[in-house]
């Protein structure tokens, strides 16, 4: 395996192939293997062994208990909130970076791992160790590409940081949590953002060039709850592209294998997660997971306003139809039909938390199928048990569509005999 080699100045500009060269087949380049902690990779990497259940017991004190927790992870509270004075440069209102800044201001953290843009780009990520509140606030906004945030762990140690806050995505948080005891920190605050279908920077540029009429002027974009991508341009105008109109065939194999074998959309091992998908439009979706998460929410609470979460519609038919399409892909309908489908989805589709449930279930189904078809022998290690529990209502439809059970085959059945660690070709 290569590394620790790649300079953070350039790494995130590289293609997926260049970045993942010499790495295991499933690797999201989370940064862990660029550090002196690389010998701990086998115990830490989510793609070697998904240890979600054990880590949840350790950091949240219990296992997932409800149907919603199978999808969203352990939650003490789920809220819709936003900053009363939003940061116009933030992805949403900017709670995430505001909280990171507060941790520094109050002396609760000495440094924050966060991700700014590579100079001269808008969206190429450059993880860095912020030491001042202004630096954290300056890192607001998504750089929606693979970012090796954990590569800063050696710098953390060298700088003598004892109280660390980390803002990161699920694969980073899994490795961080698994190796937490070895970090030698007095305090660790883990602020999560949801994540799925991440890409390398050149693939993001390609995506923008395919979906937008003016890719060079896009300053902000997001996959919205109204079933379309919203792209905001330099002059302030908003371009909307229905999901169903995105020509996936032209995008090619844009998603790294790791992201297609990822089952932690909601960043369930963080102390607190700030997303948007389960919240009403314009609000943030807050999932508080443990006592530390509650303390973090209390820290930022005076700056927030709250509203009721929305939860409407019924996702089950749409998810079952998606499942059938996974097993037998259909041809893309012509443009007028797509327009009608998009309008129907907006009118009749699930809303709020029900929308988030549908998105997570579809990703789970797609990624389970991806692992089974491409990395079948790794299923027992890479797919956590909660995926089967979450998808259990679709068991009969799955069996009908794929001609096999949703549940994993038992230990003594071929082909999912559990290989010894390291025996699996990766
Ligand atoms: C690739 C990606 C996919 C996402 N997908 C979803 C989704 O499907 N559903 C959902 O609800 N939310 C998703 N999010 C999270 C969401 O878009 C917002 O980042 C989150 O809600 C925080 O908003 P904010 O205004 O509080 O953040 P801000 O205050 O603007 O701060 C954003 C924070 O994100 C960090 N960041 C930016 N880019 C990266 C990166 N590439 N890797 C790691 N950290 C980064 C920055 O360091 C910063 O700390 C995704 C984020 C990313 C980066
Ligand atoms: S995902 Fe992270 S821990 Fe796993 S192999 Fe890649 S760099 Fe290493
Ligand atoms: S989709 Fe999963 S594996 Fe890929 S970057 Fe996001 S959290 Fe990591």
Structural notes for this entry:
There is one protein chain. The chain has an eight-stranded mixed sheet with strand order 3-2-4-5-9-10-1-11. Strands 6-7-8 form a three-stranded antiparallel sheet, with no helix packed on it. The radius of gyration is 21 Å and the shape is globular. It is built from 19 helices and 13 strands. A hairpin with a 7-residue loop joins strand 2 (111-117) and strand 3. The protein is 36% helix and 15% strand. Residues 1-6 and 412-426 have low confidence and may be disordered. The termini are close together. It binds flavin-adenine dinucleotide and iron/sulfur cluster (2 copies). One iron/sulfur cluster (SF4) is lined by residues 28, 146, 169-171, 195-196, 198, 258-259, 262, 264. Residues 28, 146, 169-171, 195-196, 198, 258-259, 262, 264 line the site of one iron/sulfur cluster.
Secondary structure elements and their pairing?
Blueprint: H1 8-11, H2 16-20, H3 41-44, H4 52-60, H5 67-72, E1 77-83, H6 95-105, E2 111-117, E3 125-130, H7 133-137, H8 153-158, E4 163-168, H9 170-178, E5 187-192, H10 201-211, E6 218-223, E7 228-233, E8 238-242, H11 248-251, H12 257-260, E9 272-275, E10 284-288, H13 291-300, E11 304-307, E12 311-312, H14 316-327, H15 335-348, E13 351-352, H16 353-374, H17 379-382, H18 385-390, H19 395-402
Parallel strand pairs: 2-4, 4-5, 5-9
Antiparallel strand pairs: 1-10, 1-11, 2-3, 6-7, 7-8, 9-10, 12-13
The structure holds flavin-adenine dinucleotide (FAD) and iron/sulfur cluster (2 copies).
